[in-house]
Design a protein that fits this description.
Elements (H helix, E strand, L loop, with lengths): L4 E4 L4 H16 L4 E5 L11 E5 L9 H25 L3 E4 L6 H9 L4 E5 L6 H6 L5 E4 L15 E3 L6 H4 L15 E6 L6 H11 L4 H6 E6 L5 H11 L2 E5 L5 H7 L2 E4 L3 H10 L3 E3 L9 H11 L3 E3 L7 H13 L1 H14 L4 H17 L1
Helix pairs in contact: 1-14, 2-3, 6-12, 10-13
């Protein structure tokens, strides 16, 4: 029987979405797959994948928080070691974030083949700690800031795996809005929503010209505490809008969007480029390494998106940009084509190939 491939990922979409795509690829190849995650891992949406939850350290501010983080990391390390000995995987793949660390450290200690995947254009702190001892470093972009010296020799650009429902959007050509028809806007804030989008987007859209406002069909993701207030503002202005915490049909909404407004996480930027959809990106300013700004700049440099920092993301600035794009649909079409050219629809296959190549090298 084929040996297990173990995936180590935290509970947020940015880590779980690429893990989900890789799991599906390995299942197609007849490989058994297991996921080791933390308590936030939720229900993994791939049948046939065993899911195990272990403690994972969160290294917060203050001495007590750090000590608690070390304690939880040690507990997770022991639990992961027991699991890995029992499952005896051919390889262990980490997707970053502190919840991946106990499993990856245990795999390294046991001498197993290890690969980390970096979704962002800046190497995350957990991956930076793991990188010196892993076999290979798969990257979303051509490289990632923080990979220098000998670590560069470990880089294998694979792209960032996306869900199959996103990959098929490449078969749906982008059709720019016409002057009389609907202008469909999708507002997304990552798996957790984004408070700044709920604060700024309504003010911006409701200040648009009446003719454009009448054309807008809006889908907006918002945090639970913001849902009612945001929906009420749109309803009072007669704007056609759906405001939800999470859209079960996100791939369909992305495929139908003329313009996306959202954060610039690794999974979001990968999905935009695979689908070939233009976007206004608002990087999360509090990110430790400002990785979302680096992600966004990659898309902007390729002509696929427009970047507004949080400081620049005001209602007047957003309204002016939306008005300009709506009145010049050719700009949207050019950005959509540029995004499509940057997409890596076979990223899951390329990452799986890399994992199996490392396994063969280890066995030789």
């Amino acid at each position: 029987m084929s040996r297990y491939v173990i995936l180590a990922a935290g509970g947020t979409g940015g880590h779980l979405f690429p893990a989900e795509a890789l799991a599906r690829e390995f299942l197609k190849r007849g490989r058994p797959v297991a996921l080791i995650t933390d308590r936030r891992g939720g229900n993994f949406p791939v049948s046939g994948v065993e899911t195990f939850r272990i403690p994972a350290g969160q290294f917060g501010a203050g001495l007590l928080a750090k000590l608690r983080g070390v304690y939880d990391l040690a507990r997770g390390f022991m639990a992961a070691s027991r699991l890995l000995r029992r499952l005896n995987p051919g390889a262990v793949v980490g997707f970053g974030g502190y919840p991946s660390m106990p499993t990856m450290l245990a795999a390294q200690q046991l001498g197993m083949a290890t690969i980390i995947h970096e979704q962002n254009a800046v190497l995350g702190r957990a991956n930076a700690m793991l990188a010196p001892r892993v076999d290979r470093i798969a990257t979303h972009f051509a490289t990632a800031e923080g990979l220098a010296g000998r670590l560069r020799d470990k880089i294998s650009p694979t792209g960032n795996p996306v869900r199959p429902a996103i990959s098929v959007l490449r078969e749906t050509p982008y059709v720019p809005p016409n002057a009389e028809g609907a202008f469909r806007i999708l507002v997304i804030g990552g798996s957790q929503g984004a408070r700044i989008l709920s604060a700024v987007v309504p003010d911006a859209l409701l200040s648009l010209s009446p003719a454009l406002l009448a054309r807008i069909e809006l889908s907006q993701q918002a945090r639970p505490e913001d849902l009612d207030a945001v929906a009420a503002r749109y309803a009072s202005a007669g704007l056609k809008a759906e405001v939800k915490r999470f859209f079960d049909d996100m791939p369909q909404r992305l495929g139908g969007a003329h313009l996306v407004i959202g954060r610039a996480g690794g999974s979001t930027t990968a999905e935009l480029t695979v689908a070939g959809r233009p976007a206004i990106l608002v990087p999360y300013a509090a990110a430790i390494a400002d990785e979302q700004t680096a992600n966004a700049r990659n898309l902007v440099a390729g002509g696929a998106a427009w970047l507004l920092t949080e400081a620049e993301f005001t209602a007047p600035a957003l309204a002016a940009l939306v008005e300009r794009l709506a009145s010049s649909p050719e700009l949207l079409a050019v950005a959509a084509a540029a995004a499509l050219s940057m997409g890596e629809p076979d990223a899951a296959m390329r990452l799986a190939d890399l994992v199996e190549r490392v396994e063969r090298e280890r066995a030789a």
